[in-house]
Amino acid sequence: MPVSCVTKQVNMLHQKRMRDSQKVLIPLSIVMIFSGIMAFTGAPSSIWGPNSPIFTTTRHHSTGEHILSWRIKTAPLWVYQGLHALPALIWCLLMPLQHVDRFRRHWPAFHRNNGYIVLCGFLVLSITGYWMLNKKVAHTHDDIWHIHNFSGLIPLGWPTFELTLLALEPLYIYTLLRTVQTARARNFNTHGTWAVLHTMVAYTIAVERVSLLISYVLGLALNFFPKKEVYNFFRLEDTLDAKATAEMDLLALMNLVAFALVVCWGIQEWRKTGSSVKTTEFSPALKDRAKQS
Ligand code: HEM
């Protein structure tokens, strides 16, 4: 193969790194911004009230109101709003900007400063998020090892909201550290890939909110079936406690679904780089020849 052709392909390899599309990041940020605003205002009770049909809300066991409205009344607000929801709003506005190629090329200083803000912001979100889990300021089962299964409807079951979030922690921290380390080493190609991976993992929370909203829409569709049949199918009694328990099952499931969706998103972006093919064409020897030419 002529050297010029190898050079072109090596350049292609560098150009075709993983990306986070604005078409995905912006809608995710918008959903999360609404969520963040509701951490200050509460959820509208006309949509998500104690009498909402099953699976169209996530009601709290004690009052039946949406957990976001309940949380405002019970959480230490300086942490929940000041150190979690507020940084989340800023993070959601700034993170997509890190992935605009034009900004990065024309205003590298902006990219660097904004990068430090979003990464430090994420660290704050992560610390306060796990603090809230630790203090039980979260809508999760009291027993972290509990297996949710819609009262035995699905034999295998799935883990709690808390356990799934804890399992994500190493991924959050590792991708964050690698993003910073490669940027500081000025290894920008690798930095790009780690930054994309970190962004995907960090958006798991937003993907979970989207999955939850979709589950509310599906819950609304259940209204077309006779109530008795739906309750029999999900082995539900028509009590606040039973409904809140089933909706907590669903919340935990959506957390897992979000994790699976983010893995699919990562695989999809990785496949777009064409990394799964042409490995023989990019042997180290060929790369060296290309660099020397
Ligand atoms: C890094 C790990 C994170 C953990 C462990 C975590 C944990 C939590 C917990 C426990 C709550 C309270 C939920 C409840 O009331 O039941 C919460 C709320 C919230 N989190 Fe996080 N969080 C994390 C990251 C993020 C990120 C990256 C964002 C923004 C993109 C975010 C945005 C929010 C918002 C807006 C709320 C309040 C409204 C809501 O619950 O939807 N969090 N988080």
Defining traits:
293 residues; mainly alpha; disordered C terminus; binds protoporphyrin IX containing FE; transmembrane helix
Task: Give a quick rundown of the structure.
This is Fungal transcriptional regulatory protein. Keywords: Membrane, Transmembrane, Transmembrane helix. The chain is mainly α and 293 residues long.
Characterization of this structure:
The radius of gyration is 22 Å and the shape is globular. It has one domain. 68% of the residues lie in helices and 0% in strands. By secondary structure, it is mostly helical. Helix 1 (3-15) packs across helix 12 (284-292), helix 4 runs antiparallel to helix 6 and helix 7 runs antiparallel to helix 8. The model is unreliable at 6-14, 276-287 and 289-293 (pLDDT under 50). It has 12 helices and no strands. Bound molecules: protoporphyrin IX containing FE (HEM). The site of protoporphyrin IX containing FE has 27 residues, from helix 2, helix 3, helix 4, helix 6 and helix 7.
In total, how many domains does the architecture comprise?
1
Q: Span from first to last CA?
A: 13 Å
Bound molecule kinds, no repeats:
protoporphyrin IX containing FE
Task: Write down how many β-strands occur, each being a DSSP E stretch of 2 or more residues.
Answer: 0
Helix and strand arrangement:
Elements: H1 3-15, H2 22-41, H3 67-74, H4 77-94, H5 101-106, H6 108-134, H7 161-184, H8 188-202, H9 204-222, H10 227-233, H11 240-272, H12 284-292
Helix pairs in contact: 1-12, 2-3, 2-4, 2-9, 4-6, 6-7, 7-8, 7-11, 9-11
